[in-house]
From TrEMBL:
Region (Disordered): 638-657
Pfam families referenced in this protein's UniProt entry, alphabetically: RHS_repeat (PF05593), TEN_YD-shell (PF25023)
Keywords: Repeat
All residue ranges annotated as the Teneurin-like YD-shell domain in the record: 177-468
Keyword Repeat: yes
Organism of provenance: Pseudomonas fluorescens
Lineage: Bacteria, Pseudomonadati, Pseudomonadota, Gammaproteobacteria, Pseudomonadales
Name this polypeptide is given: Teneurin-like YD-shell domain-containing protein
Length: 685
């Protein structure tokens, strides 16, 4: 059963229309905006058309190769993004025609080893277990990761000197040393952070204790630096109040029936429609035809936002007329901003901002491995100048303090419930500005906004400026930050359902998570991990399978039907018993067992076919011999080719199993020796 309509608590409707094959053909949002999709015969997206409120259209077209890989994406403004792959189907370059091409290199194990983008390069090295061992940053600084026998992180070195040390027990970090400071962490039975204490040697400096309600919400924080904070929630676990024991005003929140946040910091009415905030008190908000916030008006004061054809913010105009320009790479990552003629360039490691450079400063950002939680800031360019400062975070990974090697606090902040800076303190002489906020967010001083990878977050309203680009896959409210800012984070600006702290996983509500359109765009190459390894294997297998299917169809072969890795075990065995066709189950007359084999996987299967078909092009004899029917064959060694059964003359019901067939054979039609008709793993003869 396919979901066709959703009505939210405000009475707005979201409608979905499908193709006969169950693909989304058109969706109409709660705000009335339509998006239509066209597919090829294989169900791959060919064209996406967005319809604006004013009758305008924005069309994005997708050109793919025979394996279904995206080759060219043509944007609504006519610009093209070109994607290139190597022989194994790995993404090796992306070029959007601007001055910021992206290139990727891999080792023999499909691990990313070099990442070029614009003005810099990242280089990776791995240990024997495939975990990241070395990382060379764009400024040539070197990081080395040390791990215990089980794989847990024990230390990180920067340019040959110890940066941090870590102690993990049961998968949770218990202790950390950053410069001369030591941190001790304690957790409750559900793995939530319960206490974080900071000391210098044996001298306690400060401590934070966290308490949670029976239903899992953060109830209280006792902070020796900033005092006590208490949190209040409604029956739907949404934050409704924050009470501070010290000099910070209480905060109050409510929500409309559709879950839109209403911050009670300004007296006056609210007006929302289709989840768009149109008015709050004397502030008025205007949107373009695609739901992007373009103006904030208060009397004669106007703040303006301008977007490109992909709904990315490209210009911010302050009330005084000062303009800031923003640019992005082919994956939508912000690569620079220009404020008052001064440009800051940004460099990325996947979805993590890892460096920024301007005429006045150079900084690198390091994160806890496998997360968006910042670990250290390196101030200065190059191994000789990079000076480390250390992050101290709350339970969600939001920076609370930044300390130097000696342990002195050089930056400290307090926040409102939805992430707006309410108090900022500096120490240590020179004021070091630290822009990281909620996980994945970067504070822009010129606008007060937080750049959040795919969107911009407005901490004044607790909302995004633009609707979620993943539509329903991100939840029912396209502008909402998270269901609850004390227990959730959104490091990519895509889904408001990413639990913070130590709770794993990101998801949309169960009833809408699968309601999405797959545009088939390649994802950013990421660091080696089991998840990434599995993803690469899955993609490589899918690509190899498509190409083997192409061989099967082009030459009318039966290599898939009789020898693919997807043949069930019993069918494979039965062929060695009585000759039954693994595909149809038909038994020949007279019944007679045959050698029955299958390739290990689709990549091995494709490799065998490619080796056989490319011999003549490589200057080799096109065939290595003939079979008993005088059909030309290619027989070659291929370690790990597959497995199979050989008939057992003494006990026909129990054929001999060979798990290690390290050769393969491809048979060709003697009437046309260029046409193969089967390929299979074989034993050495």
């Amino acid at each position: 059963m396919l979901l066709t309509e959703i009505e939210n608590e405000s009475g707005d409707n979201y409608r979905l229309d499908y193709t006969p094959g169950g693909l989304i053909r058109q969706e109409t949002g709660f705000d009335g905006r339509r998006t239509a999709y066209a597919y090829d015969l294989n169900g791959q997206l060919l064209e996406k058309t967005e319809f604006g409120d004013d009758g305008s259209q924005r069309v994005t077209a997708y050109l793919r190769d025979a394996a279904g890989r995206l080759l060219v994406k043509t944007l609504p403004d006519g610009l093209k993004v070109d994607y290139r792959y190597d022989g194994l189907g790995r993404l090796v370059s992306v070029d959007d025609g601007q001055d910021h091409p992206l290139e990727f290199e891999y080792d023999a194990h499909d691990r990313l080893i070099t990442e070029h983008q614009g003005w810099g390069t990242l280089r990776y090295g791995y240990d024997a277990c495939g975990q990241l061992k070395h990382l060379r940053l764009p400024d040539n600084s070197r990081l080395e990761y040390h791990r215990a026998q089980g794989g847990s992180l024990t230390a990180i070195d920067l340019n040959g000197s110890r940066l941090t040390t870590h102690t993990f027990v049961g998968g949770r970090e218990q202790q950390r040393q950053q410069g001369l400071l030591h941190s001790d962490f304690a957790y409750d039975e559900q793995g939530r952070l319960q206490a974080h204490a900071v000391r210098q040697a044996q001298r306690p400096l400060y401590r934070r204790d966290y308490a949670y309600s029976a239903n899992g919400n953060l109830a209280q924080v006792n902070d020796t630096r900033h005092g006590e904070r208490r949190y209040q929630y409604d029956p739907l676990d949404r934050l409704t109040g924050v009470r501070h024991a010290r000099d910070q005003d209480p905060e109050n929140f409510s929500h409309d029936p559709a879950g839109n946040l209403l911050i009670h910091d300004r007296p006056g009415p609210w007006h929302l429609k289709g989840n768009r905030l149109l008015r709050h008190a004397d502030w008025h908000y205007d949107y373009d035809a695609y739901g992007n916030l373009i103006r904030e008006r208060r009397g004669v004061t106007v703040t303006a936002y301008t977007y490109d054809s992909q709904h990315r913010l490209i210009r911010f105009t302050a009330p005084d007329g000062q303009e800031t320009a923003y640019r992005y790479d082919a994956f939508g990552r912000r690569i620079d901003k220009t404020v008052d003629g001064q440009t800051t360039a940004f460099f990325w490691q996947g979805d993590h901002l890892i460096a920024e450079s301007s005429q006045t400063h150079y900084r690198s950002y390091l994160y806890e491995p496998g997360s968006f939680r910042p670990l250290a800031l390196l101030d200065g360019h190059g191994p000789k100048n990079a000076c480390p400062f250390y992050y101290h975070l709350d339970h969600l990974g939001t920076p609370q303090e930044l300390t130097d090697y000696s342990g002195e606090i050089v930056w400290s902040a307090r926040y409102t419930g939805y992430g707006k800076l309410s108090q900022l303190s500096h120490g240590g002489g020179e004021q070091l500005e630290q822009p990281l906020r909620f996980q994945g967010q970067y504070f822009d001083a010129e606008s007060g906004l937080h750049y959040n990878r795919h969107r911009y977050y407005h901490p004044d309203t607790g909302r995004y400026l633009t609707p979620d680009p993943v539509k329903l896959a991100g939840g029912l409210n396209a502008y909402r930050y998270t269901p609850n800012p004390t227990g959730w984070v959104d490091p990519l600006g895509l889904s408001g359902n990413c639990p913070g702290g130590n709770r794993p996983g990101c998801s949309a509500p169960d009833d809408v998570v699968e309601v999405k359109v797959d545009d088939g765009e390649p994802t950013l190459p990421k660091l080696s991990s089991k998840q990434r390894r599995d993803r690469i294997d899955k993609l490589a297998e899918a690509n190899a399978r498509r190409r083997v299917v192409e061989y099967e169809k082009k030459y009318d072969m039966h290599t898939i039907k009789k020898h693919s890795s997807e043949i069930p075990e019993q069918a494979l065995k039965q062929r060695a018993i009585n000759g039954a066709d693994p595909h149809t189950g038909k038994v020949p007359k007279p019944a007679r067992g045959n050698l029955s084999s299958q390739f290990s996987n689709w990549r091995i299967h494709l490799s065998a076919l490619n080796k056989a078909m490319s011999r003549e092009r490589l200057g080799l004899s096109p065939h290595t011999g003939q079979d008993h029917n005088r059909d030309p064959i290619v027989r070659m060694e291929l370690p790990g080719a597959g497995r199979g059964y050989r008939p057992n003359k003494k006990d026909s019901e129990n054929p001999h199993l060979n798990e290690s067939l390290n050769w393969f054979e491809v048979k060709f039609d003697k009437r046309d020796p260029t046409r193969p008709y089967t390929a299979f793993p074989s034993e050495k003869k």
